[in-house]
Write a structure and sequence with these properties.
Structural class: mainly beta
Number of helices: 0
Number of strands: 11
Strand content: over 45%
Helix content: under 10%
Radius of gyration: 13 Å
Shape: globular
Order of helices and strands: EEEEEEEEEEE
Length: 119
């Protein structure tokens, strides 16, 4: 079992930067990849990006990669999402998910941290 906890969200102004963190506990040494998703009110869940145990840097979704950077710390224990030049449309609940080495899909999910960007 893996438990995921997100932290670092909050209210910011447009143009600000913010870093949020996903902390994994439990059997985190067996995590193959960690991913960020977000869901804005009334919208579908959106994939933000991911990082694997074999990569030093993560990959953000194409439309976000010029502003969002994904990194990890202490193996797969922590994953960070660095967001720059935030826009009101980035307002969402950001949550992380874990895929284990033996699993083809993400099957552990955090509850999320709210990021609210005001203009």
């Amino acid at each position: 079992q893996v438990q995921l906890t997100e932290s670092g969200g909050g209210p910011v102004q447009a143009g600000d930067s913010l870093r949020i963190t996903c902390t994994a506990s439990g059997r985190y040494v067996s995590i193959y990849s960690l991913a960020w998703f977000r869901r804005a009110p009334g919208k579908e869940r959106e994939f933000v990006g991911q990082i694997t145990r074999t990569s030093d840097v993560g990959e953000a979704s194409g439309s976000l990669m010029d502003r969002f950077t994904i990194s990890k710390e202490n193996g797969m224990n922590k994953m960070h999402l660095e967001m720059k030049n935030l826009r009101p449309e980035d307002t969402a609940n950001y949550f992380c998910a874990a895929r284990m080495v033996e699993s083809p899909k993400y099957n552990f999910w955090g509850r999320g941290t709210q990021v609210t960007v005001s203009s």
